[in-house]
Design a protein that fits this description.
alpha/beta; Rossmann fold; 10 strands; binds adenosine-5'-triphosphate; binds magnesium ion
Length: 275
């Protein structure tokens, strides 16, 4: 895999669901960090998928995580979201929330949203209805389309439609959207849950060049208001969007810094170019 083409700048940070401040409700980010992984290890039948992994993410950051296949990137997200329990180490959301003690739904409820690669939108429902169904409602009742939408929720859907550039598609069945549009809709559905931290695993895989560019704009518009951790193999994309890049290899962090810094790192070059 090439790690070249590093010319793009950080880009414009305006727009988005834009509150002008980082979403951190209920999370203590008094020390700037919103996510702290410390010395995390995960073994599968003796194989260390994560091996003493430590990582800190600041609130409002757009962090990219790269690394070869099998480096442990998805496993790291599994630990953050409670899908996999670490054998050792600590994982904190802000200063006080111990993620290793919470269930997957509890972690989602505290404000960590995750997008898997395959979009899971409701194809028969319109784009608007998909967002409506995704809203954070009273947990005792599954939100239904017959329940009356209050004006704040309605406004939020319109704002998110604008953010994900699907205003013009609002009345179309989601099943008719392009692959890229479905991915954006799913991000919109995550935003309806009012997350603080968004974890996106290979979000531009399978997208056209144009869709990839639009995704870069979308993620940059979300950064600042939200904290984003993006795992991607597309290095041009990473170079375009990342504030900081973390490089994983064999379950641990081998380099961290700007894209320019990590691409000059000897070990990173070795891992990526197989020298
Ligand atoms: N549930 C599991 N059981 C056994 N081994 C697993 C399990 N999940 C992951 N692994 C192994 O752990 C290692 C790390 O996998 P992981 O999926 O986290 O890598 P990745 O960095 O996301 O790779 P890719 O870029 O291919 O998505 C791999 O060797 C994988 O085979
Ligand atoms: Mg993976």
């Amino acid at each position: 895999m090439s790690i070249g083409l590093l010319s793009s700048g950080a880009g414009d940070r305006s727009g988005g669901v834009g509150t002008g401040r980082v979403m951190t409700t209920g999370v203590d980010v008094s020390h700037r960090g919103i996510l702290y992984l410390e010395s995390i290890s995960v073994s599968f039948d003796g194989f260390k998928a994560l091996n003493d992994l430590s990582l800190t993410i600041d609130a409002g950051e757009l962090r990219c995580v790269i690394g070869p296949n099998g480096a442990g990137k998805t496993t790291m997200m599994d630990v953050i979201t409670g899908k996999t329990r670490p054998d050792a180490g600590t994982a904190f959301f802000g200063q006080t929330i111990d993620l290793t003690r919470l269930s997957e739904p509890e972690i989602a409820d505290r404000g960590i949203g995750r997008k898997f690669q395959k979009p899971t939108v409701f194809g028969q429902h319109t784009v608007f209805e998909n967002l409506e169904l995704a809203r954070k409602a009273d947990k005792r009742v599954w939100p239904t389309l017959t329940a009356k939408l209050d004006s704040a929720a309605h406004r939020r859907i319109l704002t998110i439609l604008d953010t994900i550039k699907l205003t013009g598609e609002a009345k179309r069945p989601a099943g008719l959207l392009s692959h890229g549009q479905k991915q954006w809709l799913e991000i919109g559905m995550l935003l309806m849950q009012e997350p603080q931290l968004l974890l996106l695993d290979e979000p531009v895989a399978g997208m056209t060049d144009d869709e990839t560019l639009r995704s870069a704009e979308l993620f940059q518009s979300l950064a600042g208001d939200y904290t984003l951790v993006v795992v991607e193999h597309d290095m041009d994309f990473v170079a375009r969007i990342a504030d900081r890049v973390t490089v994983l290899h064999e379950g641990r962090v081998i380099a961290e810094g700007s894209m320019q810094q990590v691409q000059q790192d000897e070990q990173v070059i070795e891992v990526f170019l197989g020298r």
